Amino acid sequence: MSGATDRRPNPEDLLRRVEADERRERRGRLKVFLGYASRVGKSLRMVQEGRRRKERGQDVVVGAIQPVVPAEVQAILTKVEVIPMVRWVHAGRTYEVIDLPALFRRHPGVCLIDGLANDNPPGSRNRKRWQDVNDLLDRGISVITAVNLQHIEEQQGAVERITGKRATQCVPQAFLADADEIEVVDAPVEELQATAGEAGIRDPRRLSELRELALLLAADVVDQQLLDYLGSHHLIPQWGTQERILVCLTPQSDPEMLRAGQRNSRRFHGGLLAAHMEQEGLSATDQKLLDQQLAAAREAGAEVHCLKRADFVGAILELAREQRVTQIFIGHSLRRPRWFRRSLVDRLIDAADSIDIRLFPHRGKP
Amino acid sequence: MSSPGRGQLKIYLGYAAGVGKTYQMLDDAQELRRRGVDVVIGYFEPHGRNDTIAKGEGLELIPRKIIEYRGTRLEEMDTSAILRRRPAVAVVDEFAHTNVPGSERLKRWEDVRVLLDTGIDVLTTMNVQHLESLNDQVYSVTGVRVRETVPDWVVDEADEVRFIDLTPRALRNRLERGVIYGTEKAHQAMEHFFTESNLGALREIALRYAAHEVEEKLEARPVEGFSEGPPERILICLTGNPSSASLIRRGKRVADYLRGDCLALHVLPRGGWDEVPATIREAVERHMHFARNLRIDTHAISDADVPAAIANFARARRITQIFMGRSAPRPWFKRWQETLVRQVVALSSDTQITIVAERRH
């Protein structure tokens, strides 16, 4: 496997990894079930996993469950030990809070916690339930939990654009990204429509958009976990789990090239990068044009890299390999003998194995 | 999507064996049966997995057809028997399966389309690595060249694609416990295909594909502050070179994602097919056939001037992107190809040209 080539780690990386490994070993493991809307069946999957683990001899308890659960979930709950939640009235509102002291005393191997995004009442040990989960993990208790897309803080803007509503309670995405395992609970939109209650979303289009968003979020988390795994095992990341487009910019680049890069990376749900070569003796006009190009690239969401090597082909390919680029967009000009001399583009085509090269005509002034 | 009178197709999509596709499919079939729907099992591959076998209990099974092939008795789905039985819903495992030689149709997905045509709904399973457009990506990531593939348009026709997720850790646990294969085979599998990194990569590919499928089912919607651009028309320059297969897959994949059109062109010598050596002709025809199977509009024209023929064709057909190969089996050929790319670039001054890499592992 080409991805399995050894990469020599430096001592600092090594130390960081050893420390991270030790921390992880002491900590409980976190598994998150992610749903795109209510009623996809997250709670069911969570308790099913709990039951299976119990059958396999693990010490499983339930630490938090939603006030109303489907009959299927209820049936499983009778077979697993439940640590009752504490009822807490604050300012006329009743809260159900995880009984942390009881859980610490009981110290199970695995604890099931539903409603990860719930708020605790003012005056609690933690303001948020996910912080309670964090405390459990710190004490070496593994947690299986469930959360909906609309409760992920960084996704709330996108969810609001789809549904017009914003959930009040949320969990930071970093907490999710840091989980040992994340599993998507996918369900056909029709099934959700059929069971939607008063408050539920029925519009199939909105549900589909939420579903797409949840799948992409999971893909990004999986991508990061994969990179971490490869890094900690000194493996070089593989090509091709997603499309990543690198646009090579010069002062004279046709703006269409960047637009095409943006369009393509969006349609592929992939990554967009831009690179330019550091050049000495660039005229003031060219410098200004280049700055405009780079600003446009950042605006388009591209990660911008400045290459400082004299060897253009080598520098571009090194960046492309490091960044797992699958397509390089580059302008070709038959007239302009600057950095995209024909020979450079030709050499790039020759040297770039497993990367597609897309040549763009220069439409600007010669 | 299905037209009136045609059965509905639902695909349970996973990223590896053992994630629970068949189990979920049978679970849904049981639910249908409880609701009084006439559902039968057309084909089911239990792989000796006990919980899956238990899930199928009580569902009517259409007996398989026995086919004699080179002295061995092999079993296949009995499509005719299902058609005679005419259930409302048929459960058909392993959508990407290739039928035994001598069967009425080459592929199981073709059998499924026959069922759909007569108005029978079908539930089926497949893994993401069986998608034609992802073949090179999967090879690059895992080192495994998947032979049983399904053209993307067949999957695009499905009314519903449901992603069945399981974390690689849980999957490897199941393997280790011998749930998926026997323990001996499991250890082999875990060291090769079912490594953490392979599974992670395949899962990511599957998640992105599932998201793409959901999006495709929605109509194209304009995103604020973002121009869709003019419709793309992609032209694939097809040759007899083995790398043409990747080139075709790649061009089609880009065209599909950009919701554009896809054409393929082969330029013949002035004398036409007669001047092409038999081995090359056979290879070109195979590639043309492959392209047509993916629903690419294929063309062959005769012209002594290859770059001019490509450029003229591109102009006449309002092509926005030309896809060309780059591989070089022989030095002279390599020089010729480079020249071809450069010449096409020079002649097609307002067209984008993509030189497709050979996907190596």
Give an account of the 3D structure.
- The complex is a heterodimer of chains A (366) and B (361).
- With 366 residues, chain A is of the alpha/beta class.
- Chain A is built from 13 helices and 13 strands.
- In chain A, the strands form three sheets. Chain A has a six-stranded parallel sheet with strand order 3-2-6-7-1-8, with helices on both faces.
- Chain A is elongated, with a radius of gyration of 26 Å.
- In chain B, β2, α2 (50-56) and β3 form a beta-alpha-beta unit.
- Chain B is globular and about 65 Å long.
- Chain B is of the alpha/beta class and 361 residues long.
Helix content of chain A: 40-55%
Largest sheet of chain A: 6 strands, parallel
Q: Distance between termini of chain B?
A: 36 Å
Instruction: List the total number of helices of chain B.
Output: 13
**What is the tally of helical segments of chain A?**
13
Helicity level of chain B, as a percent range? 40-55%
Summary of the model, kept short:
The complex is a heterodimer of chains A (366) and B (361). Chain A is of the alpha/beta class and 366 residues long.
How are the SSEs ordered, and which strands pair?
The complex is a heterodimer of chains A (366) and B (361).
Chain A: H1 11-26, E1 30-35, H2 42-55, E2 60-64, H3 71-77, E3 81-82, E4 86-90, E5 93-97, H4 100-106, E6 110-113, H5 129-138, E7 142-148, H6 156-163, H7 173-177, E8 181-185, H8 189-195, H9 204-232, E9 244-248, H10 255-267, E10 271-277, H11 284-299, E11 303-307, H12 312-322, E12 327-332, H13 342-351, E13 356-361
Parallel strand pairs in A: 1-7, 1-8, 2-3, 2-6, 6-7, 9-10, 9-12, 10-11, 12-13
Antiparallel strand pairs in A: 4-5
Helix pairs in contact in A: 2-3, 6-9, 8-9
Chain B: E1 9-14, H1 21-34, E2 39-43, H2 50-56, E3 60-61, E4 65-69, E5 72-76, H3 79-85, E6 89-92, H4 108-117, E7 121-127, H5 135-142, H6 152-156, E8 160-163, H7 168-176, H8 183-191, H9 196-217, E9 233-237, H10 244-257, E10 261-268, H11 278-293, E11 297-302, H12 306-316, E12 321-324, H13 331-347, E13 352-355
Parallel strand pairs in B: 1-7, 1-8, 2-3, 2-6, 6-7, 9-10, 9-12, 10-11, 12-13
Antiparallel strand pairs in B: 4-5
Helix pairs in contact in B: 1-2, 12-13
